[in-house]
Each structure stands twice: as C-alpha cells, then as structure tokens.
Amino acid sequence: EKLRTSWDLTEKVVQCLVRFDLELAAATLRESADSEMVELLKQLLCNLEVYRPYLPTTLFQFENEISTNVPIPGASGGEVAIVFTDIKSSSLCWETAPEAMARALRSHNSVIEWCIDNYRGYEVKTIGDSFMVAFSSLVDACSFGLQVHQKLLETMWPAELLTIPICRLDKLGDWCGLRVRIGIAWGDVLVETQRVSGRSDYFGPIVNMAARIESSCVPGSVAISEAAYEELVSISKAWCSSVPELLSADCFKMPPVELRGIGIRTLWALVPSSLQARSIAVRKELGKDNEISIMSVSTTSRSSLQESG
C-alpha cells in the first residue's frame, strides 16, 4: 500500500514537472502524507529551481510546447470560434507583488493550457499574459471558458498575491486569485501560416470582434457575440447531454455595448452555475440584478433553451 501511494505521488509530481510547473508540484507535495517520498521530491524541486538557469534549453521543451495534434480550425473552411483571454489589473499585481505575480502567472498559464488541450483548442499565440485560441467547435470554446474560471478558482495562489484587494478570497468563496476576462466571437476567418513559426494565425472582422468583446467582458465571466449565442441556441438540443460544462452555466443578455471600431453590439455573458455569488455579482455590474438565467442544468432552463431554439 505504501509503495502504491509513493508511486501515485511521484506520478502526479512528474506530470507537473514535464510542464515545469514547480508551483503545482509543490502544492501536490503539501497534500501528501508520505513524508519520506515528499522529502526526496522536495529536494528534486529545489535542485531544479536552483540549477534551471544553467540547464540546456532542450530540457524545457515541454514548458512552451504548443499542442500540434489538434486539426487547425478553419483550415478547410467553415466557421471558427476565436477566443481571447486577459488578466484584469495585471499591471497592479506586478507592481504590488512581483515575485508572487510571477508564480501566479505560471499557475494561470498552466490552467489555460490544460483547458486548451482538454477542449481541443488551437493555441494561436500569447501576448503578454493574454492568450488567443481558436476552436472548430463553439461548444468547446464556451466550455473552455467556463472551465478556465472554475479551475482558476481552485488554484492554490501565492499568499502574497491574495493580499491584493482584487485577488482576495471573498466571503462566499466565489472569487479568489487572478480575475480573467474571456471573449468569444463566432464566424468566418482568414487562416494564414506564419513563415517563421509554421503556426497558423487568424485574421478578419471576427478576430477583431473577439478582442473587443474580451475588453468589454466582466472579469470572472465569459462574454460571447450575439452570433455565437444564436448558434448555441440552434445546436443546444444536440449537444446538451455531451457538454455538461456548457449547460452548467448562467447565461444572460448584456446591455448594448459599443465595441471600439465596430459599433454597438449585444453580447451575452456566461458564468458557471456553481458560482452563484459570482453570477449575482456579474449581473449587478451589468445592471441585470433581476435577469433570469437562460442556460442552466435545471429542467426549467433546459425548456427555455428548447423553446428559444
């Protein structure tokens, strides 16, 4: 039994190390009762941290590796979901607690990358602490966004980061750590291959709209275009049972917002239904205190979706 426990612990730590996520590896060790194995692995982590600047870069090939086994969305035509993410008040976090923010950013990136892989996304690029991701499936894109918020809430953040007002744990537990905005637009895009990297990049009005939607999103929620919402309604009957993350969400219409360079548009907000305090806070910020949820796992909201479709 002890051997099995040690093996399981080692396997979990190794999974963190292949992505060089030392913060998550350390958190895994703190949760273990196998003191002997913990001490050995702690020494390994310490050595990796100290000697990292002197080790060959080939050892870190997984750290910045981008999944290549996902078909390129839109390469053969068809509509694509473009997603942008961004951290709210990241500059303030860097200025207030730079060392804690550096660790927090690694944890943030690990969550985003895990969700990209889990929902078959194509990581287009990172710009500072922002991600641009493409999805062939709009349902996958929305599920990705909802899961990112859930995983970020479950992340073990550095204690110093949690002293920053915007990152503090709230009384109801629906807010903790970095707050992220996620914007999604759905439609036709232009796909081009970058000469140097060989990666695909995306251009066109939908890309611009997704970026503007992200900027207009309430942190802690997912904002989607009206075209994306209409597409979700049309396919909800076929996908409800296979994507529970998407169904387990509050969805409400946002007040008309002016997107820079695009004009006034109607957007929709998604919040995981497990985070009811957050959902209420987002509705209040949007002036939607009394808005009835449209998307939920409840029988009532399923009926609403079916009637809308």
The total strand number stands at 11
Oligomeric state of this protein: single chain
Shape, per Cα inertia axes: globular
Strand content: 15-25%
Average residue-wise pLDDT: 79
The helicity comes to: 40-55%
Q: How large is the count of helical segments? A: 11
Distance between the termini: 53 Å
Decide which structural class fits the backbone. Answer: alpha+beta
Largest sheet: 7 strands, mixed
Fold and architecture overview:
It is a single chain. This protein is 44% helix and 18% strand. By secondary structure, it is α+β, with helices and mostly antiparallel strands. Strands 2-3-1-4-7-11-8 form a seven-stranded mixed beta sheet, with helices on both faces. Strand 9 and strand 10 form a beta hairpin. Helix 1 runs antiparallel to helix 2, helix 4 runs antiparallel to helix 5 and helix 5 runs antiparallel to helix 6.
Which key phrases capture this entry?
about 300 residues, two-stranded antiparallel ribbon, 11 helices, about 45% helix
In short, what is this structure?
By secondary structure, the chain is of the alpha+beta class.
Topology readout:
Layout: H1 2-17, H2 22-30, H3 35-51, E1 80-87, H4 90-96, H5 98-118, E2 122-127, E3 130-135, H6 138-154, E4 180-187, E5 190-193, E6 200-203, H7 205-216, E7 222-225, H8 226-239, H9 244-247, E8 249-253, E9 257-259, E10 263-265, E11 267-272, H10 276-285, H11 299-308
Parallel strand pairs: 4-7
Antiparallel strand pairs: 1-3, 1-4, 2-3, 5-6, 7-11, 8-11, 9-10
Helix pairs in contact: 1-2, 2-3, 4-5, 5-6
